[in-house]
Amino acid sequence: MSRRLEPVTQPITFELDGESIVAQAGEPVAAAFVAAGRSTLSRSIKYHRPRGAFCFSGGCAHCLVRIDGVPNQYACQVRAKPGMRVERQNAFPDASIDVLQATDFVFSKWFNHHEFLAGVPVVEKVMLEVARKLAGLGLLPEKPAPAREPALVEHVGVAVVGGGAAGLAAARTLAERGVAFTLFEREARCGGRLLVGADEGAPAIALPARGDVRTDATVVGLFADDGPPCLAVLRHERLHLVFYERLLLANGGQPTLLTFPNNDLPGVYASRAVSRLLRAHRILPGQRIAVVGEPDECRALAKLITSAGGDAVAVGASPVRAHGLRRVDALTVSTQGRVEKVACDAVALCAPVSPSFELARAAGARVSWNARSRLFVVEADSRGRATPSTWVAGELRGPMSAAASAEAGLVAGHALADDALAGGRP
Amino acid sequence: MSKSLLCPCEDVTASELEHAIAKGSRDLESVKRFTGFGTGMCQGKQCLTAVARFLEERVPLSPAQVMPFTPRPPLFPTELSHWASASFDPAVAPAGGVPDSLGLTEHALKPEGAVPARAKIVIIGGGIMGLALAWNLAERGENDVVVLERGYLCAGASGRNGGGVRMQWGTPSLIALARRSIDLMKRFARDLGINVWLRQGGYLFLAKSDAVVAKLERSAALHNKHGVPTQILTPDGARDVVPELTMTGVKAAAWNPLDGVIFPWPFLWGYAQAAQKRGVRVETFTRVVGFEQSQGRVQKVVTDRGDIACETVVLAAGAWSPSIASLAGVALPNEPHRHEICSSEPLKPFLGPLVSVLDSGLYFSQSMRGEIVGGMGDPKEPAGMNLGSTRRFLTRYAQALTEQLPQVGRIKILRQWSGPYDVTPDNSPILGRTPGLPNLLQMNGFVGHGFMMAPAVAERMAAWMATGESDELFERFTLSRFAEGRLEREDMIIG
Known about the structure:
The complex is a heterodimer of chains A (426) and B (495).
Chain A: E1 3-4, E2 11-16, E3 19-24, H1 29-35, E4 42-43, E5 50-51, E6 64-67, E7 70-74, E8 85-87, H2 102-106, H3 123-134, E9 152-161, H4 165-176, E10 182-184, H5 193-196, E11 212-214, E12 217-223, E13 230-235, E14 238-249, E15 253-254, E16 268-270, H6 271-279, E17 283-284, E18 288-293, H7 295-307, E19 311-313, E20 318-323, E21 330-335, E22 338-343, E23 346-350, E24 354-355, H8 358-362, E25 367-370, E26 375-378, E27 385-387, E28 390-392, H9 402-421
Parallel strand pairs in A: 2-8, 9-10, 9-14, 10-11, 14-28, 16-23, 18-19, 18-23
Antiparallel strand pairs in A: 1-17, 2-3, 4-5, 6-7, 6-8, 12-13, 13-14, 15-24, 20-21, 21-22, 25-26, 27-28
Chain B: E1 5-7, E2 12-13, H1 14-22, H2 28-35, H3 48-58, E3 78-79, H4 80-84, E4 118-124, H5 128-139, E5 145-148, E6 164-165, H6 172-192, E7 203-207, H7 210-225, E8 231-233, H8 235-241, E9 252-256, E10 260-261, H9 264-277, E11 281-283, E12 288-294, E13 297-303, E14 306-315, H10 321-327, E15 335-346, E16 354-357, E17 362-366, E18 371-376, H11 391-404, E19 412-423, E20 430-434, E21 437-444, H12 450-467, H13 473-476, H14 480-484
Parallel strand pairs in B: 4-5, 4-14, 5-11, 7-16, 14-21
Antiparallel strand pairs in B: 1-2, 3-19, 6-10, 7-9, 8-9, 12-13, 13-14, 15-18, 15-19, 16-17, 17-18, 20-21
Helix pairs in contact in B: 5-9, 5-12, 6-12
């Protein structure tokens, strides 16, 4: 069972399908669900498979719920507020018992909607109607959007995206060198995995002595259709268009999905979701957690779980198959060729994150497949320069410890400062 | 039950990917268009690496051949109301944009080995026109056909359009073609064995100026004469069709319940698979680099994988046709014009028809998957091949859409992209023989509506090529009409 490691100090309540849920004020809605033992948050689009939060970083779509009448909100990204009305989506009659999961059993491998009943007269008409009714996630909002403030147009010299190990090190370097910058961090606090990871030997979180650091600032795009390139940033429900001269990208990556049967069951988490729940929210997502995947990361996470009073099992093994009907209750693993089934109530998948290369590519950087890590990584020179006006650092380049990311941030920060202080436009 | 999920957003399983690979998908762009992976809420953040690894394990690929699909802006789902809160300068022409990968990466995926040394017919362009023609020719017993496609299947405009199909046109020829096309789309699953999910939810055109009202009334009279039940509605009547619409500034509407929306991707590869089953060879990632001509005829098509000797060449490369024609010394009057488009998060069905404001070029519909798919022509868009995606477009579209349909303000845009309209001087296609090169046949210039016309045009073209019997299509819409001053104006163009 999942449980809170510390009592709730600022309790609030909100509503989940009519049921009252207690949360710590300000924690993500999805964290409150995990603490309350509500593992199934939604049903998947086609097979109505039960889904619960997986990545806790707004990167997957396992935790989409309707909140206060707005569909498809990431429960892991929305902070719990008193009186909030949360509804599960895409389930009939409800997410715990969804009769539409019959499709999951009928089509046990997959449903070939391209060829199923193709060309059968009458039946195909019925199928079209049924398919249309079943399609889609979430209902149209009842109301128009509230009036938005006009987008704010800004011009900065240096924009830094990401306030994790690499971004903070780069920002500190820029501050020391006297280069003004604006840093955008998606979360409420800077730190990234320094705050929520399980890395051993990670440096302490140190903010730059000066400079414009903006948290709760999500970069949603990089466009260059108005002449100079511009970041589209959402902050406090307002769009900012930030034109920059030089860009330093340190926006890391998203958890990588590992492929095995039932890898999507509620209770299967990305490793950083587990360490985040433990460190940032003081929630143990299960008592007996299978910690599988990349051995070093497994060992570090297992230590964190054990120190919180949980049991880490199958540490460092490879996942073969997850078991369970509504949530995971066992995992078949393989360790050096030995296959065994291990009882557990949560699974942590340890694997290097997949670099979030989209912004880098929009800035003109090259992205290539690294045969060793088997990830798409951003290419750059030894000092992190990826284009004449773009520098990249940290896990965008591939798997890297927090300490190595910080070092890369420092190097790229100096490289950018050298260029900026030499004057001229990039 | 015990599925391995590779794309949890769209519920794409390992078995489905095995099937895609067995059907010939070798790259992530193709797998995306075959299975739909990466098109859901996460837009590939969670699944892209997993699918790349899966593919690499099962298909012999070098690292250079493992390439991500083009990441589409925005980076995270972002509400229309936020895009609408920005501004843009309507006086300035749009430029640039987030680049597409098309044209940058295909060389790495070029197949080994040469193309066939000879074929009776070479079709240039593996879009909907070329593939529908190939299938129709094969149905008539002519399968000595090679289709050349420079990228993956669905790389061009056929894979980038909104899937709208309508009978509401301004000339009898196009009305007849569109009616026939919709009939053929209804039979597609029976004829080709693939569901294309044609949904006849109708087209609702809104008019905000007297000039556009007059145009709708004129074309509705023509539709009725040719058996299309188009009605002119008052603004209140239009709101009965879509209650969520606002009618500010709307003077009248035109409504045909038989128009509809189709899912472009399976329609395209459905033709490709069926043509291949009948012996047609479809060569992807293969570029035409020239022509060998003598005695006033094309003798060989020269590609980057060898030459193909042939009797007939069909140029069906959409907006890329003028640049290919120039390799044969033929000047086409078509020009590519970028049109941008975007897709929202999937919602439960609420919107029946495709709605278009003819004055502004705004159009939107709800796909079978529940997404609001729509775009808006930009009067300032310059001619030229540009597949970039701009923030300006998102703002223009979001402002226009939320004005017409305020309840979508908090609906999030998942991805945007663009495709080229193949624009001719009179908005009508170019079909038939090329003056001075009679065995080079034209099949292009469809100004953004080739996708919906293809089934009927290909059927007629295959009959004309196979029987030699005259057909007015290939006399009326010839390339020579421009030199002869015989223009065929079509004015029911969106955008």
